[in-house]
Amino acid sequence: MTLRFKVDKLIRDNLPAMMQAQGLTVFTRRLDEAEFVARLKDKLVEEAAEAKMATSRADLIDELADLGEVMLALAAAAGVTQQEIEVRRLAKHAERGGFDGRIHNAAVEGDEASAGVAYYLARPTQYPREET
After folding, report:
1. Are the CB atoms for 9 and 42 separated by under 8 Å?
2. Between the CA of residue 27 and those of 12, 22, 40, 55, 127, what are the distances in Å?
3. Integer angstrom CA distances of residue 101 from 91, 97, 98
4. Which of 29, 33, 35 lies closest to 7 in space, CA to CA?
């Protein structure tokens, strides 16, 4: 009996041949530019979730490498250079700092008329309101 599985995701270039070598029939197509960028963004989220679930140092290294590969492909597809990313990363680091302090923010509160509160009100899914 032949079994078929839905995959529906962007995969690395060498994987179809590797899967065929394992006896699988692979159903692929080449994506147009817009769908390629959209699928790269999906892949970025997928790889980030896998990095989050990594339980060993080796697994984390693998998932971070995958994240890097997707990030580079997405940047290239958008015409963004690694240098542009690094310049912006350094500027944000200088302005906002890094993560060396290991600071966790549990909540914020402020007057409902403030600009700061407006930011959080505009993102209710990301920042749900808490009762005080």
Report:
1. yes
2. 14, 14, 19, 32, 40
3. 18, 9, 8
4. 29
The distance from CA 104 to its chain's CA centroid, rounded to whole angstroms, is 21
Distance spanning both ends of the chain, measured CA to CA: 60
What is the four-CA torsion angle of 63, 7, 39, 17, rounded to 10 degrees?
70
Size (the chain), residues? 132
- The model carries a pTM of 0.84
pLDDT digit string, tens, across residues 71-120 = 999 999 999 999 999 999 999 999 999 999 999 999 999 998 888 999 99
User: pLDDT tens digits, residue range 25-74?
Assistant: 999 999 999 999 999 999 999 999 999 999 999 999 999 999 999 999 99
Beta-carbon contacts of residue 51 (< 8 Å; ≥ 6 apart) = 60, 63, 64, 66, 67
**Residue 132 and residue 130: Cα distance in Å, rounded?**
6
